[in-house]
Design the sequence.
């Protein structure tokens, strides 16, 4: 494998620079005769430093394979490398980077190194010690990004034991991740790391870190791929200025079992033929356009080069929507061994709803008389205390008004003059108004005996009865009953303190047929303020 500086000269680059998309960390041309390679653009973190939008992962890479993969990635144009204490390959990653720096192919300022604090080192007393040990393995003077690997801490036995177990279960501790975060903040003050962040944290845990610390996390690294996009978490982190980096960005493709299905589907093959790219390139481009930083791992030189060649094309809107509409799948990395810990960040298996989303909107569940299907965590909406109290007061007022109208006369009576032209003498009748004050006037037609006992006068012939219909109609609406054969002339009801309502005679209405609702009230209503 030849170093980059032996591949071409600066003169050749100037002649052929128009066909190469180059994003450099500085505006000045290179000082040595090195080839300008395609590099990923950078995004600014909350700490003020810049991070390339595509990272090279080193998970499960050991020894010589890790050394050659990092060399190939550096020569191809990768500048963002992600490792961890539990990967046990920090020495190989640092050795490859230092060798490229000594050859003059890259500079330390253009390299972005991310490593993580392992779960057995959550004790604040061990944070600085283990960070200095990781710097010694990498052979570097500082770490660009230092992440807390998980909010769940393991019991510390020694540095070589990564997962202490007892009776087949991982032994955890009750160390609060907030205390661990405060110890990581001291590393920034000491200059050992430039930026700090978290990994595998949910929204509530990220919010707690923001509220209880002086330095906000700049990165949250989580599992994210087209079948598991975690839109709510990404939107929340984006709102708080936190960059989301995605591990397992492809969803662990398996060419033998053809999983995940989207990666080997006919739709993906159509996109590969349309853009003349591989499925991995299309997915990586989609995630970068979505606003996350994918961490892609590859050990094959051809795949390493293909994964970086994604910045000279772009997916159109229709294809982006097609990828966004993929059916959500389950989480691949679950860490079930620590599911009983109070800081466990993921949903438990018994809390996950495996029913497809469309099943909740099926028409078969919306039939008349059938109960709609609800999610397990669904809680029926209850009326607020304010509305319940208001309805209770209305029912109480309605009952009191009925009692007042039937038994207790109002202390203040209102006189209503009723004039009948068919009789020789007009009679005046006093009708008691309801005790409660409303905008509507209630007219009640009582029998002859009740009116004689209350008023001591002969009742007038019943021509029209106006009944209170609070339960059937809205308050204040008057309903007229059918007229008899010898219907009297128009009657005018006069209320001294309210508006005057007049009715006109309707000659077209049959005496034996009741009036329609549209013909019940014909006339003009005049409103006058007292």
Sequence:
């Amino acid at each position: 494998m030849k170093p980059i500086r032996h591949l071409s000269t600066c003169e050749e680059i100037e002649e052929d620079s128009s066909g190469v998309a180059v994003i450099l960390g500085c505006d000045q041309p290179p000082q040595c005769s090195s080839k300008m390679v395609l590099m990923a653009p950078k995004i600014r973190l909350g700490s003020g430093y810049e991070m390339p939008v595509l990272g090279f992962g080193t998970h499960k890479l050991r020894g010589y394979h890790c050394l050659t993969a990092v060399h190939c990635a550096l020569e191809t144009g990768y500048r963002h490398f992600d490792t961890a204490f539990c990967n046990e390959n920090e020495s190989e990653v640092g050795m490859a980077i230092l060798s490229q720096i000594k050859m003059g192919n890259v500079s330390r300022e253009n390299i972005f190194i991310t490593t993580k604090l392992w779960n057995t080192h959550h004790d604040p007393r061990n944070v600085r010690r283990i960070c200095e040990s990781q710097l010694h393995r990498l052979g570097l003077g500082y770490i660009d990004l230092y992440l807390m690997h998980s909010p769940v801490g393991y019991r510390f036995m020694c540095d070589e034991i990564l997962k202490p177990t007892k009776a087949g279960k991982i032994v955890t501790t009750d160390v609060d991740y907030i205390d661990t975060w405060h110890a990581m903040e001291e590393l920034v003050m000491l200059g050992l790391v430039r930026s700090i962040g978290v990994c595998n944290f949910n929204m509530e845990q990220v919010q707690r870190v923001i509220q209880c610390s002086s330095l906000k996390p700049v990165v949250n690294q989580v599992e994210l791929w087209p079948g598991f996009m975690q839109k709510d978490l990404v939107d929340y982190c984006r709102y708080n200025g936190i960059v989301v980096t995605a591990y397992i960005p492809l969803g662990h493709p398996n060419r033998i079992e053809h999983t995940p299905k989207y990666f080997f589907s006919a739709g993906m093959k159509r996109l590969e033929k349309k853009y003349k790219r591989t499925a991995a390139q299309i997915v990586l481009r989609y995630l970068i356009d979505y606003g996350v930083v994918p961490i892609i791992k590859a050990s094959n030189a051809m795949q390493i080069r293909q994964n970086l060649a994604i910045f000279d094309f772009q997916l159109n809107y229709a294809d982006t929507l097609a990828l966004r509409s993929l059916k959500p799948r389950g989480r691949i990395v679950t860490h079930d061994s620590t599911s009983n810990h109070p800081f466990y960040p993921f949903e438990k298996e018994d809390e996950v709803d495996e029913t497809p989303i469309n099943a909740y909107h099926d028409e078969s569940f919306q039939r008349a008389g059938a109960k709609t299907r609800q999610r397990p965590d669904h809680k029926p909406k209850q009326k607020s205390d304010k509305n319940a109290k208001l309805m209770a007061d209305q029912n109480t007022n309605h009952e009191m008004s009925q009692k007042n109208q039937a038994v207790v006369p109002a202390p203040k009576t209102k006189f209503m003059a009723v004039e009948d032209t068919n009789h020789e003498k007009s009679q005046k009748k006093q009708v008691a108004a309801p005790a409660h004050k409303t905008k509507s006037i209630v007219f009640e037609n009582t029998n002859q005996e009740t009116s004689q006992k209350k008023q001591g006068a002969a009742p007038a012939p019943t021509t029209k009865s106006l009944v209170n219909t609070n339960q059937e109609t809205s308050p204040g609406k008057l309903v007229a009953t059918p007229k008899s054969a010898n219907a009297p002339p128009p009657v005018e009801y006069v209320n001294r303190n309210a508006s005057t309502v007049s009715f006109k005679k309707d000659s077209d209405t049959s005496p034996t047929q009741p009036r329609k609702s549209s013909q019940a009230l014909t006339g003009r209503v005049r409103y006058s303020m007292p």
